[in-house]
Amino acid sequence: MTSRTCLTVILAAGEGTRMKSSLPKVLHEIAGLPIVGHVAKAVQGAGGSDIALVVGRGADKVETSVRALVSNITVHEQVERLGTGHAVLAAQSAIEAGYDDIIVVFGDTPLIETSALEMAREKLAGGSDIVVMGFRPENPHGYGRLIEQDGRLIAIREEKDASESEKKIGFCNGGLMALRGDSALALLHMIKNENAKGEYYLTDVVEIANSQGKSVVAIEISPDNVIGINTRLELAEAEAIWQNRKRREMMLAGVSMQAPETVFFSHDTVIEADVTLEPNIVFGPGVSIASGTVIHAFSHIEGASIGANASIGPFARLRPGANLAAKAKVGNFVEVKNAKIGQGAKLNHLSYIGDATVGADANIGAGTITCNYDGYNKYHTEIGTNTFVGSNSSLVAPVSIGDNAYVASGSVITENVPADALAFGRARQEIKEGRAVQLRARYAALKLSKKAE
Ligand code: UD1
Ligand code: MG
């Protein structure tokens, strides 16, 4: 990567009215990350760029959310929305700090790829003054058309200002532009609003730069990169494209999926090679899975770290703080929350294990519940290594069960169990010989007398 300094201006002052939402448009999420977060992440991926974020409606909320994701950022409010050229100048104080490269991107194009930003910067490093990222949409209506001559970009004509012949051009402005830092401000200040919309068009810098004999070029990127989100429909379409990219990336990196179209990742899911994902799995944020693990069908996993060669599901739910060591086994209808599960421990069926530590090789029987909450506070359950907890036991926290201990099925455990002990927490069974015969006779007689009434 180049050692040139860079500032990326993200324009996010749009109203977003078509989202029909009280949440600012750029804070709607794709794969659990706000739209503008995806843009910031791509910018960071390209390396070495500071960010200037231009915001309008919901400025405070947008600022807070983006600051939580990236640190090298300044936020600028565009009070009046007078066009993209005007919006970039809202970040004038940041631009004035002096950068080799200035990149302008839209805050509502979450599928922008790091490689597109790198391509633009390479062109600047190669001597261009302005680089415009073009694409060929299926339907160019509504986009600025790129007018080229002898390999140079001489103008961008907005739909509303275009002649009939210009409207026939299929090569369009994606909205992403890179400018040489030392001349950017002077060019931006020369933009006027004498056009069909009465706006300050950023795109006008192309003609202005040409009139000064500067070198302006367009390069083509894939249409996905510049898909803008205006409605919830487009939000869902972008989510689908994002998920497909991620599935592809995962499979090429060694993750097996039988039905990739039914597996949904979060923006930050980390999975090692040789993990198998069965159909219908949903990942929330903060999941990592080590090699050799199998996630069986219909599992929901969030905020969990899973060691190597573990087996999860089918129908498992791992909630935040689930921390599973290698070879752990979490079976069907088991919920784990804020719990450390030791190596080789088994939670095979129908359990809730929350706020707990389960030692290595422990066996937690079907229906075991950690009673961790009294309506006010949460308490911890400690289960030692190689313990055996019989089916349908309630472990009333705070409580601990020592290493190698044994808990009888159906127990309600309210007191600590020492290591190597056997704990019963249930009524003793009684046998009444022949009593079933008597009972049957009595019930049958009752039934007869009812009929007779
Ligand atoms: C713009 C381009 C057009 C390109 C198209 C690609 C201009 C003049 N036109 O048109 O060539 O083909 O994008 O999608 O640049 N914004 C602000 N403040 C403003 C105006 C806009 O922050 O005052 C932000 C918006 O939030 C949005 C972006 O800039 O993220 C683009 O604005 P928009 O109004 O959508 O521009 P288009 O007319 O689509
Ligand atoms: Mg637009």
Notes on the structure:
By secondary structure, the protein is an alpha/beta fold. It has 10 helices and 36 strands. Strand 4, helix 2 and strand 5 (73-77) form a beta-alpha-beta unit. Helix 1 packs across helix 5. It is elongated, with a radius of gyration of 31 Å. The protein starts with 5 loop residues before the first strand and ends with a helix. Uridine-diphosphate-N-acetylglucosamine binds at residues 11-14, 54, 78, 81-84, 86-87, 106-108, 143-144, 156, 158, 172-175, 201-203, 228.
Let me know the average pLDDT.
Answer: 96
- Assign a percent range to the helix content: 10-25%
User: Which structural category fits the helices and strands?
Assistant: alpha/beta
CA radius of gyration: 31 Å
Low-confidence stretches: none
* Strand content bin: 25-35%
- C-alpha end-to-end distance: 96 Å
Ligand types: uridine-diphosphate-N-acetylglucosamine, magnesium ion
Number of continuous helical runs: 10
How is the secondary structure organized here?
Layout: E1 6-12, E2 29-30, E3 33-34, H1 35-46, E4 49-55, H2 59-67, E5 73-77, H3 84-89, H4 92-96, E6 101-106, H5 114-125, E7 130-135, E8 145-149, E9 152-157, H6 164-167, E10 172-180, H7 181-189, H8 205-211, E11 216-220, H9 232-252, E12 256-257, E13 263-264, E14 270-271, E15 276-277, E16 281-283, E17 288-289, E18 294-295, E19 299-301, E20 304-306, E21 311-312, E22 317-318, E23 322-324, E24 329-332, E25 335-341, E26 346-349, E27 352-358, E28 363-364, E29 369-371, E30 381-383, E31 388-389, E32 394-396, E33 399-401, E34 406-407, E35 412-413, E36 422-423, H10 435-452
Parallel strand pairs: 1-4, 1-6, 4-5, 7-11, 12-15, 13-16, 14-17, 15-18, 16-19, 17-20, 18-21, 19-22, 20-23, 21-24, 22-25, 23-25, 24-26, 25-27, 26-28, 27-30, 28-31, 29-32, 30-33, 31-34, 32-35, 34-36
Antiparallel strand pairs: 2-3, 6-10, 7-10, 8-9
The chain binds uridine-diphosphate-N-acetylglucosamine and magnesium ion.
